[in-house]
From TrEMBL:
Transmembrane segments: none
Protein name: C2 domain-containing protein
Alphabetized UniProt keyword annotations: Repeat
GO molecular function, one term: receptor tyrosine kinase binding
Length: 512
């Protein structure tokens, strides 16, 4: 199964570059810096994406040329910023003085919004006292416009905007809606748009409350903290001496995924590993837990593929990892929620490397057993997501990665746990390893219709993404793309539906 279309996944991000305290390589003047951006491809080769202008005689340049990138949440996009002192008119940079470089991922940049790091020489020594600062700004995709519209002090008691009706309310808040630019303004952001607000009548003879005119350019500056407001004018009443307006229409823009990331929302990444007996004896090559001489098995491959993307969005890089379905020392009781480092008070592993090390060290100490129960670890993570929700802001989102080889034993309890978690800031990724029948997993990944619990309660949203590992053998990039493709929409839909703002917006004054 191929990964999702890059065109669908991409968000445009604009990067602005500045430097301070660059090394002075010129004798009779200051350095003339330029910054070149290199991108790492899947075959480990670097190619030049673009370069800034050269600034004469400056050790603290602020480059005017910006880089516009396609940002994919589900990919690790490695980048290298190289600064040179330009000494000649040739395009080749190899004959110019090297002032330092910084290598990092685009995920690290957008999760910080602005990042400042020391420049390094090619031997990894500091390049003097030079630093580079990279600022990221999202370029809103203008192919689809997202709006939230409200009003206050309307003239009538029953009113209508577009095809959504709010009854008996002079201060209505209409449901958020999306509209294509082709339908809204023919793709011309400066084209005049006329908005009418009507008093709704069942017989269809709606009466006009008032109107206003605007452009998409004016509307797109709207945010949750600073909505755009328009006076609703009724032409028939406009001639009255004391007439001011027939109400005020307020337009807001929904927060985007990058609004949350750049606004300080942190991802909390938890891993759950299946240690049931159906995996086979880890000491034998037939086992899914067998680690071959190259240090590889399907469990490790899934951890690396997903974890290396997620870790850029977790400031602590400390990941709790749990096992299930094994007999655990010293009591040898079957556990479905044990920390693989065997430290119940501190189940965290330092980075993805720490996860791999803990996994390798715990394997010989376990007795693989059964059954395959998902609900304990889902409820465990949901408990923390529930606590985070009480903060009343979009500060934390929880992602649970479950790697498993078999059929779920506690399906009813798992369905109930997922339905309950659908009302929390939480998503579940399931990667199926081996060649088992994964039809139950497909059922949980309810793309066609929302999942129901045994008591008939319906999930608030789809939070499960399942992929079978065998469809991505040897292609970790495609695996990460597939399992993470739905996550940005899951994050934005949850926080926007609950009207939760990114933490950093609370530092900004609300409009008067």
């Amino acid at each position: 199964m191929p990964g999702p279309s890059p065109t669908y996944l991409a968000t445009k991000v604009e990067l602005t570059i500045s430097c301070e305290n660059l090394m002075d390589m010129d004798v009779f003047s200051k350095s003339d810096p330029l910054c070149a951006l290199y991108i790492n491809t899947t075959d480990s080769n670097w190619y030049e994406f673009g370069r800034t202008e050269m600034i004469l005689n400056c050790l603290n340049p602020k480059f005017a040329k910006k880089f516009v990138m396609d940002y994919y949440f589900e990919m690790v996009q490695r980048m290298k910023f190289c600064v040179y002192d330009i000494d000649n008119d040739t395009y080749d940079l190899s004959d110019d003085d090297f002032l330092g470089e910084l290598e990092l991922t685009l995920g690290q940049i957008v999760s910080s919004k602005q990042i400042t790091r020391p420049l390094l020489l090619q031997d990894r020594r500091p390049a003097g006292h030079g630093t580079i600062t990279i600022c990221a700004e999202e370029i809103t995709d203008t192919r689809i416009a997202n709006f939230e519209v409200s009003a206050r002090h309307l003239d009538k008691k029953v009113n209508n905007y577009s095809y959504y009706v709010v009854k008996n309310n002079l201060n209505p808040i209409w449901r958020p809606f999306r509209i294509s630019l082709r339908a809204l303004c023919g793709g011309d952001v400066e084209k005049t748009i006329k908005v009418d607000c009507y008093d709704h009548h069942i017989n269809g003879s709606h009466s006009l409350i008032g109107s206003f005119k605007t452009t998409l350019t004016e509307l797109e500056v709207a945010t949750h903290t600073s909505p755009v407001e328009f006076e609703c004018i009724n032409p028939k009443k406009q001639k009255k001496r004391d007439y001011k307006n027939s109400g005020v229409i307020c337009v807001e823009r929904e927060f985007t995924f990058l609004d949350f990331i750049m606004g300080g929302c942190q991802f909390n990444f938890t891993i759950a590993i299946d240690f049931t007996g159906s995996n086979g004896d880890p000491r034998t090559p037939q086992s899914l837990h067998f680690i071959n001489p190259e240090g590889y098995n399907e469990y490790l491959a899934a951890i690396w593929a997903v974890g290396t993307v997620i870790q850029d969005y977790d400031s602590t890089k400390m990941f709790p990892v749990f096992g299930f379905g094994a007999q655990v020392p010293p009591s040898w009781q079957v556990s479905h929620e044990f920390p693989i480092n065997f430290d119940a008070t501190n189940p965290f592993c330092a980075g993805i490397e720490g996860v791999v090390t803990a996994y390798q060290q715990c394997l010989p100490q376990l007795k693989l057993w059964g059954p395959t129960n998902f609900s304990p670890v889902i409820n465990h993570v949901a408990c923390f997501a529930r606590q985070a929700l009480q903060q009343n802001m979009a500060s934390q989102y929880f992602v649970l990665l479950i790697i498993t080889d078999g059929v779920i034993t506690d399906m009813d309890q798992t369905r109930s746990a997922i339905v309950a978690a659908s009302r929390l800031p939480m998503s579940i990724i399931i990667v199926g390893v081996g060649g088992a029948d994964f039809s139950a997993m497909e059922f949980l990944d309810s793309d066609d219709r929302l999942l129901r619990a045994p008591n008939n309660e319906v999930a608030a949203r789809d939070i499960v993404q399942f992929v079978p590992f065998r469809q991505f053998q040897g292609n970790s990039v495609a695996l990460a793309q597939s399992v993470l493709a739905e996550l940005p929409d899951q994050v934005t839909s949850f926080f926007n539906s609950y009207k939760l703002k990114p933490p950093n917006t609370f530092n900004q004054p609300e409009p008067l």
